[in-house]
Specification:
The complex is a heterodimer. By secondary structure, chain A is mainly beta. Chain A has strands at about 5, 10-15, 20-25, 30-40, 45-50, 55-60, 65-75, 75-80, 90-100, 105, 110-115. Helices cover about 0% and strands about 55% of the residues of chain A. Chain B is built from no helices and nine strands.
C-alpha cells in the first residue's frame, strides 16, 4: 500500500504559540488530503479537506482561522494550529487517497500535540 | 454523522476467528463499506472494502448481506497483534470522505 508520513510525530508547545504539522504522500500524488483530530479514548473526527491549489474545506464547527491548511504541492499538506491552547492538545492524523489504488485512503502515523 | 453502528467491544480467543458485525441500514447504492483498524496511538490501517460482493484478502474477509444493510468483518485466525479498534465506515461517494463512528474494540486473549 501507499505510504503517508507526518512530521513531527510529537510536539510540545507553549500556550499562545503556533505549531505546523506536515503531511506527505511519499510515493504518490494526492490532490486531496484529509485532516483528522482524535482526543483520548475517542474516535477520529474529520476536520477538513485539503485541496491542492485551492482553499481547504472545513467541517462544521472547525475554526478555519485557527486551523490553517495549506496544500502547497501534490505531495504536501500542512496544518498550522495557531495560538494554541491546552484544549488543542490532541492526536492529529492526515490521510491521502492514492489514485493507483482506487483512491483508497492511507493514513499517516499521526502527530501528538501537547500544549502547555 | 457516521452511517454505521458497531458493538462497543468484543473479545476473541487467540487462534479463533473474530467476527465483527456492522450495521449500515442507510447505505446508498453506490457507497462502499470500508474497514480500518487502529492500534493504540497509531494511524488507522486499511483492512478491506466492498460494494456488494463478499471480499477476501490476506488480512480478512468481508461478508456483505444481500440487502447491503449490514456486513461482517472476519479475521480468520486472530492473534494478539490483532487487538485494536476496528472501524466500519461507509465512504461518501461524492466527496470520498471517511466519517468514523465509535468502532469496536477487539481484545484478543491468549
Amino acid at each position: 500500500g501507499a505510504v503517508v508520513s507526518q512530521h513531527p510525530s510529537r510536539v510540545i508547545c507553549k500556550s499562545g504559540t503556533s505549531v505546523k504539522i506536515e503531511c506527505r504522500s511519499l510515493d504518490f500524488q494526492a490532490t486531496t488530503m484529509f485532516w483528522y483530530r482524535q482526543f483520548p479514548k475517542q474516535s477520529l473526527m474529520l476536520m477538513a479537506t485539503s485541496n491542492e491549489g485551492s482553499k481547504a474545506t472545513y467541517e462544521q464547527g472547525v475554526e478555519k482561522d485557527k486551523f490553517l491548511i495549506n496544500h502547497a504541492s501534490l505531495t504536501l499538506s500542512t496544518l498550522t494550529v495557531t495560538s494554541a491552547h491546552p484544549e488543542d492538545s490532541s492526536f492529529y492524523i492526515c490521510s491521502a487517497p492514492d489514485p493507483a489504488w482506487n483512491y483508497e485512503q492511507y493514513f499517516g502515523p499521526g502527530t501528538r500535540l501537547t500544549v502547555t | 454523522d457516521a452511517k454505521t453502528t458497531q458493538p462497543t467491544s468484543m473479545d476473541c480467543a487467540e487462534g479463533r476467528a473474530a467476527n465483527l458485525p456492522c450495521n449500515h441500514s442507510t447505505i446508498s447504492g453506490n457507497e462502499y463499506v470500508y474497514w480500518y483498524r487502529q492500534i493504540h496511538s497509531q494511524g488507522p490501517q486499511y483492512i478491506i472494502h466492498g460494494l456488494k460482493n463478499n471480499e477476501t484478502n490476506e488480512m480478512a474477509s468481508l461478508i456483505i448481506t444481500e440487502d447491503r444493510k449490514s456486513s461482517t468483518l472476519i479475521l480468520p485466525h486472530a492473534t494478539l497483534r490483532d487487538t485494536a479498534v476496528y472501524y466500519c465506515i461507509v465512504r461518501d461517494f461524492n466527496t470520498g470522505k471517511l466519517i468514523f463512528g465509535q468502532g469496536t474494540t477487539l481484545q484478543v486473549k491468549p
